[in-house]
Amino acid sequence: MKTIRLTMSQALVKAMMAQKIRLDDGSVQLFFAGMWAIFGHGNVAGLGEALYEVKDQFPTFRGQNEQGMAHTAIAFAKGKRRRQVMACTASIGPGSLNMITAAGVAHANRLPILLLPSDVFATRLPDPVLQQLEDFGDGTVSVNDSFKPVSRYFDRITRPEQIIPAFQRAMTVLTDPAECGPVTLSLCQDVQTMAWDFPATFFEEKIHYIRRPHPDPNELETAKEILLKAKKPLIIIGGGVAYSGAEKLVEDFCNKYGIPAGETNAGKSAVPDQSPLNMGGIGVSGTAAANALANEADVILAIGSRLQDFTTGSWAVFTNPNLKIIGLNIQPFDGTKHNSYPLIGDAKAILELLSQQITNYKTDQSWTEKAKNLKANWYKIADKYMAIPSTTAEKLPSDAQVIGAVMRSIPDNSIVVCAAGGLPGELQKLWRAKQSGGYHMEYGFSCMGYEVAGGIGAKMAEPDRNVVVMVGDGSYLMLNSEIVSSIMLGVKITIVLLDNRGYGCINRLQQACGGKQFNNMLVDTHHKELPNIDFVQHARGLGAISKKVSSVQELQDALIKSGQNDRTTVIVIDTEAVSITEECGYWWDVAVPEISKQKTVNEAYKTYLNYKKTQRLWN
């Protein structure tokens, strides 16, 4: 057998470069688009040297923060519909631990990323090394064990030849539509530099494809029978619709059979907003139209959704006692939730078969017309909230008014990126994506700090589209350093920074639960002097073009002009922290204290108990 003598790091990189994937159109592309790396003593001499040798064939990108660079890689995979991924490497100890939050993001959102944290010496001869933590009762433990609960697959490489089965298993997980998620290969720093005679077959071109499992005939028959009896069916569009490439098929399915649809945050924009039976967001931050239909629906066809509490209104939005749920999902874990009737397999393949099975079915015209009327009424309400405020208005603009300004001012092909705080709630209700894939929300983990880094990943995945990041001041302060990466890489994004001087979303939630304002808005925190943050100067200092606007109209003008800028632009606008879009949304189960010295909390607890009675029980 022919062998090639390489270090473990050289072998890993060479094997990564040999991985390719066949797309739906038959074309073949590289599976790994590159490596994000922040070097330290744990990886600079091992993996760093291996990457240097191929720097002209396999790009290495330098991040500013390990969590940020991993967020970028995750957003890239989302933008590529899981058909192409990136890897991330960090040094031993704190550098690697910084990636764990991002691993949680990838795990919750079912997104592929290869994480290569550096680990302690396998030989243990120099122990304890710099940045190593020691377990008093287990000599095999390192901080990288923390990756285990947030990885779909975890392996620690303590011998160079172990990389062969470990990498093969990693590729299986990264390309599996059901098991897809973060893979962690923890690389002992001395093993990174050890040489071994690797079989040449390990480096041969390998073309992968995303399989499309067909459903069990019994499950398909059951789903058909349920749908044929449905009087008030409703589809939930989850993120799996886009990953399957079933966007157009879902839209046609809705229109053909007259079935309205609500969107999860992950599924939003798979079907363009202007599609007549797309009711917009559903659940806690859903539209009035989608939630009104959810209240009455007798059958829910959940496509590619993990049925998160925000989607289901904490399982209180579905009030029909005779409701049946069909869980169309590639992953049985998700397709069987809440006693759903499972329909396990690829969304595109199943919808094609299901459509053949119910050819003569048509939803009652009154249900379809009701949906269209509800959507028209909702548009009128939403337009009111997003309208340009009066020039005589004394208070600062609301999130909704800023969203309206952004939506009116950017090209149709734009992608809006967001993740946490009050903005996701308003965006799911209000944003109207004109093209498929125009809404990129990380709300599986709702990770503050994802936004800027995620915007870079979205732009790298679809460089021909305009990317606008919407972020609050709190989230911006947590992780803004990747602005530097966007400048370095020439990846231009536009950042709209809404400054409400604190954590306005949680402040509202605190009061909704009966509490007093405390430790969320800057003015309510323990302080000797309130900060006066100059976000414009800060962004400019990181290399961005920056500007502060004083009105919604100025924001619109600045957004239009930003299209002519040659690099990342940050536009800052002061907003008020109280107003949200009323006449929509739904209850969210956030536990309220059973006993409190505050009368308002005790009253909120009584209200909470009343809502709890509306939840669907596990059955």
Automatic annotation (TrEMBL):
Q: Can you name one GO molecular function term for this protein? A: 3D-(3,5/4)-trihydroxycyclohexane-1,2-dione hydrolase activity
Q: Pinpoint the Thiamine pyrophosphate enzyme central domain residues.
A: 221-353
Q: Which UniProt keywords apply?
A: Hydrolase, Thiamine pyrophosphate
Q: What is its EC number?
A: 3.7.1.22
**Which residue numbers delimit the Thiamine pyrophosphate enzyme N-terminal TPP-binding domain?**
46-131
Every Thiamine pyrophosphate enzyme TPP-binding domain range: 421-573
Read off the NCBIfam families from this record: myo_inos_iolD
Record-stated family? Belongs to the TPP enzyme family.
Q: What's this protein's name?
A: 3D-(3,5/4)-trihydroxycyclohexane-1,2-dione acylhydrolase (Decyclizing)
